[in-house]
Design goal:
single chain, alpha+beta
C-alpha cells in the first residue's frame, strides 16, 4: 500500500514525469541550480513523447499560460479532477486523489514550459509522503489533416522524495513507479487533446458552460473565447 502511495505522488502537476531532457539554456542560474538539485536526487524519472493531437496551437498555449483557468475548463468538460487556485504565496494544485502542492511556472518561452512543484500525498491509513518535482512540457506544431495543426507534446520531469528510506524503496520498484509516471504524463496530454477537441467542435457551448461557473475569471474567459471566435 505504501509503495502504491509513492507512485501516486507522481500525480503532483500531475505533478511529474523526465529523463534525458535538457533544461533550457537561458534558464536563470539560481532556478537551474534548484531544479538540477531535484533532478540529481530524483527517486523516479521518466520521459514521454505523447501521441500528437489535432488542435489550435494558440488555444493550447493559452491553457498552458493560464493553469487556473485550464482546470476550470477540464472540470466543466469532466475530463479531469485537477483544481488549481492562487493564494498569496502563489499557485496551488489538488489532483483530486490526495496529492496537494504548490507550484511555479519557472520558464515559459519558445514552446517550452518548466514547472517546479512541492507537495504532499495524503491518504487514510498511510503516512504523508512529501516531495518535489520538476516537470517540463515541450511541444511542436506540425501540419495535420485537412489543413489543421497537429500538436506533438513531450512531457519530462523528475520526482524527489524527502524521505531517503522511501526514495530507496521507490528505486527498488523503479519499473512500477516509472510506468505510473508515464501513464500520468500520457493522461495529461490526453486531457489537453479532449479540451482541444471540445474547443474545435463546440466552442460556443464550451464558452457558455464556462460562463455559468462562479469561479471562472471573466478576463480569462473573454481571452479564451476570443481565440475560439466566440463573441
Amino acid at each position: 500500500m505504501r509503495l502504491a502511495g509513492i507512485a501516486v505522488l507522481l500525480a503532483l502537476v500531475t505533478l511529474a514525469s523526465a529523463a534525458g531532457a535538457t533544461l533550457p539554456p537561458d534558464l536563470p542560474a539560481p532556478q537551474r541550480a534548484r531544479l538540477d538539485a531535484v533532478a540529481q536526487a530524483a527517486a523516479v524519472s521518466t520521459h514521454v513523447e505523447a501521441e500528437p493531437f489535432v488542435g489550435q496551437p494558440e488555444v493550447f498555449e493559452y491553457l498552458l499560460n493560464h493553469p487556473e483557468f485550464a482546470t476550470r475548463v477540464t472540470r466543466v468538460l469532466r475530463v479531469a479532477r485537477y483544481r488549481i487556485w492562487r493564494q498569496a504565496d502563489g499557485l496551488w494544485l489538488d489532483d483530486g486523489w490526495g496529492a496537494v502542492g504548490r507550484f511555479d511556472i519557472v520558464y515559459a518561452q519558445a514552446r517550452t514550459r518548466v514547472m517546479h512543484a512541492r507537495g504532499v500525498y495524503s491518504k487514510r491509513l498511510l503516512p504523508d509522503i512529501h516531495g518535489e518535482a520538476v516537470v517540463m512540457i515541450q511541444y511542436d506544431v506540425k501540419p495535420g489533416p485537412n489543413g489543421r495543426s497537429l500538436i506533438a507534446a513531450t512531457v519530462t520531469g523528475h520526482v524527489k522524495l524527502d524521505s531517503g528510506l522511501l526514495s530507496g524503496l521507490t528505486k527498488l520498484v523503479t519499473p512500477v513507479a516509472r510506468a505510473k509516471a508515464a501513464r500520468e504524463a500520457h493522461t495529461l496530454v490526453k486531457v489537453f487533446a479532449k479540451v482541444a477537441r471540445a474547443a474545435d467542435e463546440s466552442p460556443a457551448t464550451l464558452c457558455q458552460d464556462l460562463a455559468q461557473q462562479p469561479d471562472v475569471s471573466p478576463r480569462d474567459l473573454a481571452g479564451f473565447c476570443r481565440l475560439l471566435s466566440v463573441r
